[in-house]
TrEMBL record:
The gene is frlC. This is Fructoselysine 3-epimerase. Signal peptide: none annotated. It comes from the Bacteria. InterPro entries: IolE/XylAMocC-like, Xyl_isomerase-like_sf, Xyl_isomerase-like_TIM-brl. Coiled coil: none annotated. NCBIfam families: PRK09856.1. SUPFAM superfamilies: Xylose isomerase-like (SSF51658).
């Protein structure tokens, strides 16, 4: 059965407890916890905030299956900058893997961001391979999955397609390093969403399901953009995808995250029912 999760980035101006309270009340299956301040920044978790996360998991009986540390811009981006900056980002993500393990999460999500305008593909791939090899080895040691996400061209200048994931897995052979599909990147690039399933095979381990519009990477509530989500869900049912799918509302609805988190799951459940997923 497809598991539907809540992403917590849009709640960053609300107390963290609202995320767990709402996820439970609105009918989400799990939480994908955003790792930024004020809620779940890995160094803060290490300093003691992990106890609050575990308390909320237990109080609301709402598991955190995924942990998504913030690392696509400031101050961490392992694809750009000096070796010292790269090392700092990798150490931060290793700590994120440790904290994810402590909260009982199944995976940590990483996405290779923009590597800078002057970098060549050879330089970018060399750096990414080194990063994912090291992080993947650490994930294997902790026995937690490292899920790698392709981004839109608005976010990354080289890691944006299913084929980029295929190439990464050719270079890094590690069962704990897996892939996913955020459905906005393929949609805005006129790429096939379903091709991710064919190309990645058993490495296709997670999804971000949201709606979108051509020409923008804005993440919209399912059913309120231009992506044919009902038909996609039907195809997902046909191929038997039954893993995790987070409704990744980020900051587009930050003014009223509780309103829109409810509308998102209500729309998603309706679309699932129409596609025959019950």
């Amino acid at each position: 059965m497809l598991k539907v999760g809540m992403f917590t980035s849009g709640y960053q101006r609300n107390p963290l407890e609202h995320c767990f309270m709402d996820a439970k009340e609105y009918g989400y299956d799990y939480i994908e916890l955003w790792g930024g301040r004020p809620h779940a920044y890995a160094p803060d978790l290490k300093a003691g905030d992990i106890n609050e996360v575990r308390r909320l998991i237990e109080k609301y009986e709402m598991p955190v299956l995924g942990y998504t540390p913030e690392h696509n811009a400031y101050p961490y981006n392992y694809m750009i900058g000096s070796e010292a900056q790269r090392r700092d980002a990798i150490d931060y993500l290793k700590l994120s893997l440790e904290m994810a393990k402590e909260m009982g999460a199944e995976f940590v999500l990483t996405s290779p961001a923009n590597g800078g305008y002057l970098a060549t593909y050879d330089q970018l791939w060399s750096r990414l391979e080194k990063n994912i090899q090291e992080l993947g080895d650490y994930a294997a040691k902790l026995e937690i999955k490292l899920v790698v996400e392709a981004l839109t061209p608005y976010e990354s200048n080289f890691f944006t397609r299913a084929n980029d994931l295929v190439e990464l897995f050719r270079r890094v052979d590690n069962p704990y390093v897996v892939g996913m599909c955020d459905i906005v990147p393929p949609f805005v690039q006129h790429e096939s969403i379903m091709a991710y399933f064919d190309k990645l095979g058993n490495k296709m381990d997670h999804m971000h399901i949201i709606d979108g519009e051509n020409g923008s990477d804005t993440h919209l509530i399912p059913g309120e953009g231009n992506i044919p989500i009902k038909e996609m869900l039907y195809e997902m049912k046909r191929i038997g995808y039954d893993k995790t799918a987070t409704l990744e509302l980020v900051t587009n609805y930050i003014n009223e995250p509780r309103f829109y988190a409810k509308r998102a799951i209500d729309n998603m459940r309706e679309l699932m029912a129409e596609a025959g997923i019950v």
